[in-house]
Design a protein that fits this description.
By secondary structure, this protein is an alpha/beta fold. It has helices spanning 18-32, 52-77, 91-101, 121-131; strands at 7-11, 35-42, 83-88, 106-110, 135-139, 178-179, 189-190, 203-204, 207-208.
Length: 220
């Protein structure tokens, strides 16, 4: 039987949620016996905010720190022969380019940034979902907010600001609540907001909707 996934990219911004997301990628890698590639993309500073003679030095320093942080993160994941990639450019474009170049069949990324440390991760995940040639897994990280240290030590990498002991075992549910059959909708169905009023007596699953007093045109 062919492997479900052979090469997996774990795209990380090295923020506080990175270890949690990486652990999900590592589990899938072990289950599928797939090659895991950890990738971080550095966005270059805008040319009009940094002098040209300082830009290269700043990028060189960022590359060094990012490489050390990514290597330490990969060590925590305990995956043998994990490949590490650090690029400079647009995270969205670089991840897509590398996923094609490395012939990956799964990208694992966080749903968004948490803890006020990053804001671009959500837009990156959305772009990957719509543009990637392969499967994309977005790991929900909303429930990590309470587990992030507000003032981590400067000696720590940013991804070490997550206190794993405080992570909720079950993420809080999101989305529309369920409406029971006692309201005339039959069983338990996931229901979003109604954008238009349904005419009284319209047949629906589970029976006929009762006329609401507020919808009675004869009611004064």
């Amino acid at each position: 039987m062919d492997k479900i996934y052979g090469r997996i990219i774990f795209a990380t911004d090295l923020g506080p949620q990175s270890l949690y997301i990486g652990q999900h990628a590592a589990k899938i890698s072990r289950l599928c016996q797939a090659q895991l590639i950890a990738m971080h993309v550095i966005e270059p500073p805008l040319t009009y905010t940094v002098e040209f003679n300082k830009r290269d030095a700043q990028l060189k320093d960022q590359l060094k720190r990012a490489s050390l942080s990514l290597a330490a993160l990969c060590e925590q994941l305990k995956i043998k022969d994990i490949e590490q990639v650090v690029k400079v450019g647009s995270p969205q474009n670089e991840i897509l380019t590398q996923s094609l170049h490395l012939q990956c069949d799964l990208i694992v990324v966080g749903s968004h940034g948490v803890g006020g440390y990053t804001h671009a991760l959500g837009s990156t995940a959305h772009h990957l979902l719509s543009e990637a040639h392969c499967d994309v897994l977005t790991v929900q990280v909303t429930h990590l907010e309470q587990a992030i240290q507000p003032n981590p030590s400067a000696e720590l990498y940013l991804w070490q600001a997550l206190d794993t002991k405080k992570i909720q075992k079950t993420p809080q549910a999101r989305g529309p609540k369920y409406t029971s059959s006692e309201h005339g909708f039959g069983g338990y169905v996931q229901r979003g907001p109604r954008l238009t009023m349904r005419p009284p007596g319209t047949p629906i699953r589970g029976g006929t909707r009762r006329k609401d007093k507020s919808e009675d045109p004869d009611k004064e």
